[in-house]
Each structure stands twice: as C-alpha cells, then as structure tokens.
C-alpha cells in the first residue's frame, strides 16, 4: 500500500513538529541525508536515493530473513558474519510505481562463510 503525496506531506509535517519539540516552525527541524533499506533482516543494508513508504515501513525493508533447517531465524546477534551478506535489488525497485516482473531479480553477494546457526 502506497500513501498519497498529501498524506506523506502531513506525515512529514507531523514528524517535523515532533522533532522540533512541538514548535511549529517554517524551518525544517531535520534533514534526511541518506536512507538505508535492509531487504534481508540482519544482512548488510542498501543505500537508496528514495524509499517509498508502505503500511509496514520502507518498501523492501526486512522483507526476507535467513532461517535454518528448522525454520528458526538467524540474526547478527547470533551470527555476526551475516553483515557480510550484501543484497542487491534493481535500482528502479525503489520507484513508487515499480512492480516485480518475470525478469526481476535480487542478487545476493556473500563470501564463503560457515554460519554457526546451521551447525
């Protein structure tokens, strides 16, 4: 679900007011300088120029997770080497109107690592 631009402006205004300590000011209270999305929970993040917001947060953020053969989640808390797993999505995947197709992909780059959560 994508939020209309008007709703995003209202949300932005609300966040600015909250960050400014309740003061209504024409000057921005905060400036976003970078956005990171983590498509696979506990793996390396992807820096993106924009990230559409859905009902659950940024699009593609923590959509997938690594699990062991018993279906239990592996996280960096147990397996710090997960930070070396680098997901890659098509750049246009972060456009508000992009939808996956049969030719869409997600690349995953990883060194040869032995994860303890699989032992």
UniProtKB/TrEMBL annotation:
<protein>
    <submittedName>
        <fullName>Molybdenum cofactor sulfurase</fullName>
    </submittedName>
</protein>
<dbReference type="InterPro" id="IPR005303">
    <property type="entry name" value="MOCOS_middle"/>
</dbReference>
<feature type="domain" description="Molybdenum cofactor sulfurase middle">
    <location>
        <begin position="30"/>
        <end position="91"/>
    </location>
</feature>
<dbReference type="Pfam" id="PF03476">
    <property type="entry name" value="MOSC_N"/>
</dbReference>
């Amino acid at each position: 679900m994508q939020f209309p631009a008007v709703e995003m402006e209202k949300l932005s205004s609300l966040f600015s007011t909250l960050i400014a300590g309740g003061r209504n000011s024409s000057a921005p209270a905060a400036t976003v300088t970078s956005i990171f999305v983590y498509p696979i929970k506990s793996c390396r993040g992807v820096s993106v120029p924009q990230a559409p917001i859905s009902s659950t947060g940024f699009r593609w953020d923590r959509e997938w997770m690594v699990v062991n053969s018993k279906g239990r989640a592996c996280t960096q808390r147990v397996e710090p080497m997960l930070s070396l797993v680098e997901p890659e999505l098509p750049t246009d995947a972060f456009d508000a109107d992009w939808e996956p197709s049969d030719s869409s992909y997600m690349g995953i780059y990883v060194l040869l690592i032995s994860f303890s959560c699989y032992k």
